[in-house]
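Input chain follows. Return structure tokens only.
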Amino acid sequence: MNRTAIRIATLLAAVALSGAAVAQTMSFLSPAPLTDEGWMPRPAAKKASRLTIEPPAPAPAPVPVAAPAPPPPPAPEPAAAAAAPLPAVQERAQERAEPAGPTLKREVTVTGDIVRIGDLVDNAGAVAEVAIFRAPDLGQTGSVSAATVREAIRPHHIISLDTRGLAAVQVTRASRALTPKEVEARLLRALAAQSSLANVNDLAVSFDGEMRMLHIEPNAELGISRLGYDQRTRRFEAMLDLPAGAARRPSLRVTGTLVETAEAVVPLRAIAVGEVIKASDVMIERRAKTEVIAIEEVLGLAAKRPLKPGQVIRAGDVAKQELVARNETVTIYYEVPGMVLTVSGKALDAGAMGDVVNVLNTQSKRTIQGIVSGPGRVNVTAGSPRVASNAPPAPAKAAR
């Protein structure tokens, strides 16, 4: 019995101690002591809006104070105002959101024989692939009026067409242009394969008539449906196949001659008479091998006649630069061992560097021969000068 009493007493004492500990712990977690001066300073009066729990203090009754007026709403920031969509931007956004109606195009490029509704009209819908016109010829451009387009698409249930104020649409037929050089290269390849021609690179085609630029479909190749060649005369006849559409393949008959070519000198610009030809004035091209000369025989020479750009320079077109003109006053240099004498003279012939010309000594009135050594200069060396054959005989005393 005593043991039971002791246990009960011990249990009651433990509960009492536990309650005191819990009470002490609760006092630390309670917000009330945080307002005590010993834990933290009292907030300033202007910060009274901060939530704190304080014990009631004896103070006079509070005087009612009028509540401050609510502050006005803040003005929008400039950046926010700028970010707001403008009416024009809103309209464009609305246009993008809403599908546009059928609209006439200003200019188009078509491939093939026909022009479809979708080629001329944006947003044509299900009838975009309907053909309404025939396309222009390859490489050509034509126009169709807006009124004609409107009438052509009306039966296909496009009633309202926005023409954007356009009177007509420009339609261009796409093509691949073939220059005469490309046609010549194609013929040479075909002739080489058929006739086993050697040195095709040294051959060229001379057409009987003027070869104009040809147009074919953009992705097509020039074909040759028939080709004949005579090795004896080097004459050829060919039928060119020109793809012009799904159902059109017109042909062109051409004839001509194969000619042997060589490197020729061709002016890049117009060269006047007497102008000395420089390397920057000419270029090398392969031309028919007729009287062509090497570039070494052209550079440094002067043109004897006007030379046009692209015209082959032949041997008779150039000559050495004339340094002494006929009837020009020149200086005659007499060269003897240890001495050089000069005298004025008159050139009776024109000559270039190194040419032998007749000159008249204006003092002695004798005609002698000399070598052109520079512009307006003729050299006569000891032992070499002689009286020209057509000069009058000199007096006897002069001979002594």
